[in-house]
Amino acid sequence: MKFIDLHTHSSASDGTDSPAQLVAKAHAAGLAAVAITDHDTLSGLDEGQQAGRDLGIEVVRGCEISTGTELGELHILGLWLPQNPQPLLDRLCWLREKRAERNMGIVQKLQDLGYDISMEEVLAAARGESVGRPHIAEVLLRKGFAKDVRQVFREFLGSRGKAYLPKTVLEPEESVSLLASAGATVCLAHPLLWRAPAGWLDTMVARLKDYGLSAIEAYHSEHSEADIRTCLALAKRFDLGVSGGSDYHGSNKPTIRLGQGYGGLRVSQSVYEGLKQRRMSAGLDI
Asked: What whole-number distance in Å separates Cα of residue 218 and Cα of residue 86?
């Protein structure tokens, strides 16, 4: 049986592998398909697809968008994106501009606290156009201001950290609509990473389905077996597709491996074929 991974991050955002390196690792791991789903950017997709063609592994064009709800962030994946979805590209560009403003604000707060860090160092740490807190953390670690990433986020960059600033995000409905209008399979990412009140997730899924939500990420590194069963039941209730992926970030999350998560994750190729069948039935390209 072959396996897939439809949720990964490259150096185009906050991963450490270039898109080509990521695809090469997926091929070496024996995966049948891999999706590159960087935060707020499509800039690594062409490189990744070319590597896939060279190696003979299917590469799905994707991205991940963070959205805001009354309970916190909800993440949306778009899979099978076309080459130049201009309305989506324009909105992602705006989000990256807001990221840049936030990054400058965080760096300023760190400087005000007496830490020797500059935006030039942060930009140098970033390897792609989507720059964020992991790149700030990399500089802080390199300079010895913390012993590990957990400490960086606990003391400085997390929601209770001394230099934290909130992120500008889109509404879930806008993100889903943007991705659906581009012809993507729109997937609710890791919906059980945090716990919502009873009935809240069902209400949200019902609402987002009206805007084009078409799949649920049931299989994820952080999902327990019970979580997977809950997501599968949710997908069945709302007649949605099922997806899965590791949320691989390279050495930024060294305990998560491509296609395996923490070691127990296996997303079968049948999940991939099921999503493709749904796209074909809807008249969408694959």
From this structure: 30
